[in-house]
Write a structure and sequence with these properties.
The structure is a homodimer. With about 120 residues, chain A is an alpha+beta fold. The first copy, chain A, has a domain of about 80 residues: Arc Repressor Mutant, subunit A. Helix content of chain A is about 50%, strand content about 20%. Chain A has six helices and six strands, in the order E-E-H-H-E-H-H-E-E-H-H-E. The first copy, chain A, has a three-stranded antiparallel beta sheet with strand order 3-5-4. In chain A, strands 1-2 form a two-stranded antiparallel ribbon. The radius of gyration of chain A is 16 Å and the shape is globular. The first copy, chain A, starts with a strand and ends in an 11-residue tail after the last strand. Chains A and B meet through strand 1, helix 1, helix 2, helix 6 and strand 6 of A and strand 1, helix 1, helix 2, helix 6 and strand 6 of B. Chain B binds a DNA duplex (30 and 30 nucleotides) through helix 3 and helix 4.
DNA sequence: TCTATTACTTACCTAAAAGAAAGTAAGAGT
DNA sequence: ACTCTTACTTTCTTTTAGGTAAGTAATAGA
């Protein structure tokens, strides 16, 4: 049995799935893989996320030690988010998701034009 | 732009994340990677899922052509679920999640005893 | 003094996900 | 005739996630 944050799991996949069972966390990680970002950047980049949800999700990720929050004593405020070591290790997971998405679109969807994301992480 | 089921995405990761943004689908896939299963088997194996939720999630996965549903004309009923080609291709995603989980537990959790899942897929 | 900027918080509300519990259909076995 | 089994469906309720909109703090610059 695995014990993480007072929860028990009988499989390490369950640990991972339990952390990332929402709409936003992996999306945030995906963007942070391209480099550190401020709150505002994430708010603008992560598709349609609201400020409140972003705050909540960032807090959860920080508590789980997947991202790091660095506050600068400036005005207006500056807070930079970056991936921890654990966070960076999610890269292969997202790369496989990226690949699967492309494959799935080829079978069950279509590409409508060329405005496709150019992530530098691949 | 990618178009899948009348939805638009600008990144293939978004396609994947949008399909698997719930608590259950990837967990179901994970179990099906070990072999085809009947409804009852999944209900017993997938941790704590209710019948209703299982029905809903299986239907969603079937609509998205990630699993296949085979009905046998028997009494009592027999319905066997299996992964489609797209479904099977999720294996690398889940393998990376499995690895990440183990790594994460080592940094942020602990292993309490030896009752850990022995999946044959790795 | 007034406005702009950033990173939030707060209060309230809605929609979606999920759970609980019971019911159904269709025979097969006793 | 009665029970058992499987794979559901149905209804009703609860929980959770997430959205909206407004407010706040601190200071720099016009």
């Amino acid at each position: 049995m695995y014990l993480v944050n007072e929860k028990e799991y009988n499989c390490s996949v369950a640990v991972t799935l339990d952390i990332f069972n929402d709409r936003w966390k992996l999306s945030i990680i995906w963007h942070l893989l391209n480099g550190d970002m401020r709150f505002k950047d994430l708010h603008e980049t992560v598709n349609e996320i609201t400020q409140k949800t972003l705050t909540v999700k960032l807090k959860e990720l920080e508590e789980k030690k997947i991202i790091h929050r660095e506050v600068y004593a400036e005005v207006p405020p500056k807070v930079v988010y970056s991936l921890t070591c654990s966070g960076k290790k999610l890269k292969p997971v997202l790369q496989e998701m990226y690949k699967w998405g492309i494959d799935y679109v080829q079978e069950c969807g279509k590409i409508t034009n060329d405005h496709v994301c150019k992530s530098s992480i691949l």
